[in-house]
Specification:
Glutaredoxin; 8 helices; 4 strands; globular; binds glutathione; Glutathione S-transferase Yfyf (Class Pi), Chain A, domain 2; 55% helix
């Protein structure tokens, strides 16, 4: 398999970490859909990362769809998202909060790249309120990683989201605002699978 995209994207990073956790061999191709757009779009015309190219040549896009495929080939006993019931609903809600936080932080990050006179402060404030709400909800799940047990998808994606926000919008996670998320992130970032995918 080939994973196309850079680990500075939380979506690419969560797929990279997942591939390591599931011990799936892959080649990482760190193309940027921004600075290497022509080369990137040869793999996926929409031009968004991540892209996963299977050994058959089939191309998958959208990180949730890629994670779903990786869980499917891992099989029910090794899958990183529970297969059904309340545990699955809880996991999907946590993942939705984490990806919502990423989406809002990305929107803020893109907005700040505009010429200063065209930056919409109201838009940034709106996204920031939504980012804070997503993190407050994530914090309420009290996720923790004890001992050496295998990472689950809720931990991978939450830690990728937290690290991304800390890098691009550090103000949002200042002053030990989210102690559970901070602890989870520190524990995950020490894992070999995270160290293999530096953002
Ligand atoms: N929902 C998508 C989001 C992917 C996404 O937004 N990727 C960004 C980088 S973080 C990207 O490739 N942006 C380039 C563009 O949209 O032109 C997923 O989970 O894969």
């Amino acid at each position: 398999m080939k994973l196309i995209g850079r680990y500075d994207s939380p979506y690419v990073r969560r797929v990279g970490v997942t591939l390591h956790v599931l011990e799936q061999p892959f080649e990482h191709v760190p193309l940027s859909p921004f600075s290497q757009v022509i080369e990137f779009r040869k793999h996926a015309a929409i031009g968004r990362m991540p892209v996963l190219i299977l050994d058959s040549g089939e191309t998958l896009i959208e990180s949730a769809a890629i994670l779903d495929h990786l869980d499917e080939i891992a099989g029910p006993s090794a899958a990183l998202i529970p297969s059904g019931g309340p545990e699955r609903r809880r996991s999907l809600k946590i993942l939705a909060c984490a990806t919502a936080a990423c989406d809002k932080a990305i929107a803020i990050n893109y907005e700040r790249r505009r010429p200063v006179e065209r930056i919409l402060d109201d838009w940034i404030e709106r996204c920031r309120t939504q980012l804070d709400a997503a993190f407050a909800e994530l914090e309420s799940f009290h996720l923790e990683l004890r001992g050496h047990r295998r990472l689950q998808q809720i931990e991978i994606t939450t830690a990728c989201a937290y690290a991304y926000v800390r890098r691009v919008e550090p103000d949002a996670v200042q002053a030990k605002r989210y102690p559970w998320l901070e602890r989870l992130s520190s524990a995950c970032e020490l894992r070999q699978q995270f160290l293999a995918c530096p953002q």
